[in-house]
Amino acid sequence: MKTKIATLFLIGIFYSTASEAQQQKTPSGYTYGTSAIAKSPMTLEELKLLQQSLLFGEDDIKYLKMSHEILKEQTSDILDVWYGFVASTPQLVYFFGNKTTGKPDGEYLAKVRERFAMWILQTAEANYDQKWLDYQYEIGLRHYSTKKNKTDNVNSVPIINYRYIPALTIPVTTTLKPFLAKKGASAEDVDKMYNAWVKSVLLQSILWGQPYMKKGEF
Ligand code: HEM
User: Fold this and answer.
1) Which of 65, 83, 138, 156 gets the highest tally of CB atoms within 10 A of its CB?
2) What's the pLDDT band for 51 if we cut at 50, 70, 90?
3) Ligand 1, pocket residues at CB < 6 Å
4) pLDDT attached to residue 25
5) Is the pLDDT of residue 15 over 70?
């Protein structure tokens, strides 16, 4: 098992290095802001009401934007940590497994990893406009049975069970905190950036739940 995890990890690092070499290239399947994306069933007004409900305000936007400069050179290191966590947690790496063999699909992991790097930057840009909202719907569909596996054309399990999505808010943001502290920001600013990240990731994990619910229940 340990060897398998190490191999997986190395494949991830290999692919991420390749993608960094072509930094300006849009990762395959990253369709943010394009006409390939459907309109979110949720309105911007409803998004605002949800943000208010989790105490997400202008200050959080300010601190997310502050984190962009700090995180932009660190996405690969952050992803090494996140992927290390997923690879060593069997109930999570299962969702990257080949449906027939059950083995983790290294290429699938690597392709998603490139889009994940874009997501870190997009989250830190904190532009809560229609394009952003529409892409949240798309990400939800890609975790759900409607679109899982389709973007990378892989033969993996058909759905990510929803319960794991909000759960991952905690490891994602807890492991991000040391990276926020790496470029000399004050402890107070690091805390504020971290809190804004927790709220933003929670907000997104809620939005991604829309496809999992019956019409009118979300
Ligand atoms: C806070 C929780 C989570 C975050 C921030 C997150 C983030 C992302 C992002 C940014 C993508 C790529 C979206 C794109 O295509 O542009 C993605 C896809 C994916 N995520 Fe998550 N995710 C979360 C929860 C989970 C969980 C719990 C799993 C289970 C292991 C998971 C497995 C996957 C898989 C398999 C894909 C590829 C789906 C496909 O297109 O086939 N994610 N995730």
Assistant:
1) 83
2) very high
3) 29-30, 86, 92, 95-96, 112, 115-116, 119, 139, 142-143, 148-149, 151-152, 160, 164-165, 168-169, 172, 201, 205
4) 79
5) no
Q: Give the span between the Cα atoms of 51 and 93, in whole angstroms.
A: 31
Domain ranges of the chain: 2-212
Q: Which of 143, 147, 159, 199 to mutate to test the pocket of ligand 1 (most atoms within 8 A of CB)?
A: 143
CATH 3.40.50.80 fits 2-212, yes or no: no
Which ligand 1 atom lies nearest to the CA of residue 119?
10
Q: How high is the pLDDT of residue 18?
A: 39
- Hunting for tokens 């936007």 — which residue is that? 61
Residue 11's SS3 state is helix
* Terminal CA-CA length for the chain: 39
Instruction: Find how far residue 84's CA is from the centre of its chain.
Output: 15
Q: Give the tens place of pLDDT for each residue, 88-109.
A: 999 999 999 999 999 999 999 9
Instruction: Provide φ and ψ at 156, rounded to 5°.
Output: -110, 180
Query: To which residue do tokens 């502290």 refer?
Result: 181
* Closest by CA position to 212, among listed 166, 168, 152: 166
